[in-house]
Amino acid sequence: MPPKPFRQLDNVSAGLTEWKGLLRDYWTRFSSYCNRAESIHIHQVEKMLEKAFGDFLFGSLPDNSRACPSCLEGTLIFKVSRYGAGYFIGCDQHPKCKYIAKTLYGDEEEEEETPQNKSMEEPRLLGVHPVSNEKVLLKNGPYGFYVQLGEDRKDFTPKRASVSHIKDVDSITLDGALQLLRYPVTLGNHPKDGHPVILKLAKVGFAVRHRRTIASVPKSMKPDDITLEKALELLSGDNVRHIGRPKGKPKVKQVMEVL
């Protein structure tokens, strides 16, 4: 005998059950589940996931210690990113302490990791900016190597650019770092909605972005050759993805009114 949902559909097909009533019953139950889910705070969800998957989440931490190595006061906990697009292990003293041990899933595309020079612990001076005279540094952080314009100062975040897509970080020169620090750049506004189309440097190379839509730039294409027209072509292609949480999704009550 087929499962109950299939029997119900068979009854609709045979004319024994009115389909609107069946669908209304489904949405009534589904709406109650949604209402119950809305009453649960995201922190409760984080705690439940932390309890269920703690061995996996914290198993790779040094010495299996959850003490924050940055502020020495906090405890490392599982967190969902602000817009629900990723997950990470961070300090519970945020925003006082912004230490992040590792990310579990992010907005950017991931690719198989390639060995990099992990022996460099101290920042390496590549040179100085020809205009601002600020130092240009090559540094190693939680997400890999990156170049930075200027030194770290209190209440100031220097401009940075990831170089994770470069296999040999020792080959990075001052000119190369300055080129990377130019990004992100706005190519222009999208003709349909006027929102900016941005060329950015992602973890695995360059990408173009329009609102929630991101398209990777082929590695055979130079970033200087990307125009607004070319970016629009990439964004309308098949190799695109959407990030973040869409706005303006219809609520269950609105669907019920239609039924």
TrEMBL record:
Pfam families: Toprim_C_rpt, Zn_ribbon_Top1. It comes from Manihot esculenta (Cassava). This is DNA topoisomerase type IA zn finger domain-containing protein. InterPro entries: Topo_IA, Topo_IA_Znf, Toprim_C_rpt. One of its GO terms (biological process) is DNA topological change. GO terms for molecular function: DNA binding; DNA topoisomerase type I (single strand cut, ATP-independent) activity. PANTHER family: DNA TOPOISOMERASE, DNA TOPOISOMERASE, TYPE IA, CORE. GO terms for cellular component: chromosome. Residues 66-102 form the DNA topoisomerase type IA zn finger domain.
